[in-house]
Structure formats: structure tokens, C-alpha cells
Design brief:
about 350 residues, alpha/beta, five-stranded parallel β-sheet, 15 helices, about 50% helix, disordered N terminus
């Protein structure tokens, strides 16, 4: 197979991956870098880089988990639910009562998120962080107190730690909360400098009048919060966030600290990711963006986190559904690293 050797992988790549495996076998304490994973991929029985972006995904997954055989099972999606006082301003086509209705639907296993989680063999948990006792109206004053902030963050962090204690190495956060694209737009403007016209989208079906109201509310709320950001970022965030968004931020920060891969969903989840990165810098290095939402501000929010989405399918439901759809791509990336023979094993 001498001829195939030159086509598939170079001698340097073989040497690098051999050294890496030898150090791991010897129990050496080390950090797996991108170059190590690329060397492993280039030494596999396939033409180098022939699987395109799947290989780049495999590299990111391996570096996040710090292993050449990353694990995608077991995995868990945690859905955080909460109501929003700003719904009273007419920023959404749906009443807050729909949040409770959808929470009940999730609990019976008949929601979009539960159907997709079952299809992907992904454990699902639901955490109520404010259904019926939601945030204050951010159009009038701060959405929450400092104590509210701490409780929501802690609920998310605890959910992540519980999942990791049960062996989960891939974590997804989803949300349910009528009106939550309004605080998401505020946070995207505040933390990612996305302009108003891009940050504010139609959410779950806002008409032109609602969209104009939503833009006015978001602009005024961000104007009040922005002066606080430099000296008291927690207060600035608390002024415009939602309980489920804060819980997702705590979930992401704790998951990253525990070495889990975080598969990031859509616009509202990414608002939580922006909070996590601001308050726990480096959290974004553990994130993989599942998709780009149809919400216009999502691309700018992902760019602020340095993330390139795997899919661009015009999804905008939330509930972690976009991440669940992308989850098989992580399985494929992990299988590539763990299941393909090295050329050296074939005598190349």
C-alpha cells in the first residue's frame, strides 16, 4: 500500500499521532490541542480532510472533551421554563398562559422537543424557574432583583452538574417562555452590540404593530441598562433578562467548567450563552452552535461568541429543537474519531 500512503496521510502525521497515543498510554498529563486531533484524523484510513466540515466538528468536540474518543452518550437536554412580565406590553401574539400549556405538553411527552429528544435517544429534563411567577415588566423597570438573578443562575448550574454526575458529556439547554425573544433581543443588543433592527425579530408570529412595539420596548430597556454594563454587568443583565435565560447561562457556565460539550440552540439560548461568556469568560470555547435561527439577530450573537453554526434551516421554535436536529452530526464526528482504523493498522 505504498502508493496509498502518499495519497492518504504523511509520515509526520503518523509520527505525531503515534507520539500522542504513546503519551496517553503512559498516563502522561497533557492537553489535547487541535493539531493533535488533526494529526489523528489525517492518519486514518481515508484521504486527508475528505470529510470536510465533519472533521472540523470532530476536532472541536475532541478538544472540548479533551479526548481523542469523544463521548456523545449519554446526553441530556434541560428545558427551562418561565414567564415574562413584558408580555403585558403587547410584544407577542400569544398570552403568557401558553407557557403553562406548553410545559404541560412537554411533561406528557407530546411536544416537538420531546419527540425529537426521543428520536435522538437524548434524556430530557424540565426545570420550572418561573412559570406563573415570572419576571417583572422590563419596559417599566428591572426584570428581576439580584436575588432572583442568583436563584435562576444556580438552578441552571445545578441542572448541569446533576447531568454530568450521571455521566452526560453532551449538554443542551432549551427554553419555554412566551415573550422571551424580547429579553433575548435586549441581551443581544447589550452584550453583542447587534443593532436594534437586527436584534428584534418577529418571534412567535408578531405582526407589524407588535414588531414596532417590541422595537420601542427593547430600545428603551437597553438604553436604561447599558450605563450599568461596565461597572455592574450583573445589574445590567438582570434589568433585561428572563429567568429561563439566566438559568441557561448558569447551565452553560457549569457545563463548560465540568468539561462537557455544549450544543447551542437558537436565539434565546444564545442570549443565555452571551451572559455566560460575559460572566464566566471562556465558556464559549465549550460550545458548538447547532444552527442559525430565522431570528435576524442570531447570526450577530453567534459571531460575538466566535461560533459558526452547523445548520441554517430557518428554524425558530426554541425548546432546544434545533440542537436536537443537529445532534446526529456530533454522533457522526465522534464515530469518525473512535471507529475508523489507522492507516498504520493496515500496513500502510
Amino acid at each position: 500500500m505504498t502508493g496509498l500512503h502518499g495519497e492518504f496521510a504523511g509520515e509526520d502525521a503518523h509520527g505525531s499521532v503515534f507520539d500522542l497515543h504513546a503519551r496517553r498510554a503512559a498516563g502522561a498529563r497533557m492537553k489535547i490541542a487541535e493539531a493533535d486531533v488533526w494529526a489523528h484524523l489525517d492518519a486514518l484510513a481515508k484521504p486527508p480532510r475528505s470529510l470536510g466540515r465533519l472533521e472540523a466538528l470532530a476536532v472541536r468536540l475532541a478538544v472540548i472533551q479533551q479526548r481523542l474518543d469523544p463521548q456523545t452518550h449519554p446526553r441530556r437536554i434541560v428545558l427551562f421554563a418561565g414567564d415574562h412580565g413584558v408580555v403585558a406590553q403587547g410584544v407577542t401574539a400569544w398570552p403568557s398562559a401558553v407557557t403553562r400549556m406548553m410545559v404541560d405538553t412537554i411533561r406528557t411527552g407530546r411536544a416537538s422537543s420531546t419527540a425529537l429528544a426521543a428520536a435522538q435517544r437524548c434524556d430530557l429534563a424540565l426545570v420550572d424557574v418561573g412559570v406563573g411567577t415570572g419576571t417583572a415588566d422590563l419596559a417599566i423597570g428591572p426584570a428581576m432583583t439580584a436575588a432572583d438573578f442568583d436563584r435562576a443562575w444556580a438552578a441552571g448550574a445545578e441542572a448541569a452538574r446533576a447531568a454530568m454526575a450521571e455521566g452526560c458529556r453532551v449538554l443542551i439547554a432549551g427554553e419555554m417562555g412566551i415573550g422571551n425573544t424580547t429579553p433575548a433581543a435586549c441581551l443581544t443588543m447589550l452584550l453583542a452590540d447587534v443593532p436594534l433592527d437586527h436584534a428584534v425579530g418577529r418571534g412567535a408570529g408578531a405582526d407589524d404593530k407588535m414588531l414596532a412595539t417590541k422595537r420601542r420596548v427593547v430600545a428603551a430597556a437597553v438604553d436604561r441598562a447599558r450605563p450599568l454594563l461596565a461597572d455592574d454587568p450583573r445589574a445590567a443583565i438582570a434589568a433585561v433578562a428572563g429567568f429561563e435565560i439566566l438559568a441557561m447561562a448558569g447551565f452553560f457556565a457549569a457545563g463548560a467548567a465540568g468539561g462537557a460539550a455544549l450544543l447551542l440552540d437558537g436565539y434565546v439560548a444564545t442570549a443565555g450563552a452571551l451572559i455566560a461568556e460575559r460572566l464566566a469568560p471562556g465558556t464559549a470555547r465549550s460550545m458548538i452552535a447547532a444552527h442559525r435561527s430565522a431570528e435576524p439577530g442570531h447570526g450577530g450573537a453567534l459571531a460575538a461568541l466566535g461560533l459558526e453554526p452547523l445548520l441554517d434551516w430557518d428554524m425558530r421554535l426554541g425548546e432546544g429543537t434545533g440542537a436536537l436536529v443537529a445532534l446526529p452530526l456530533l454522533d457522526s464526528a465522534a464515530a469518525l474519531l473512535a471507529g475508523v482504523a489507522l492507516l498504520s493498522e493496515l500496513g500502510a
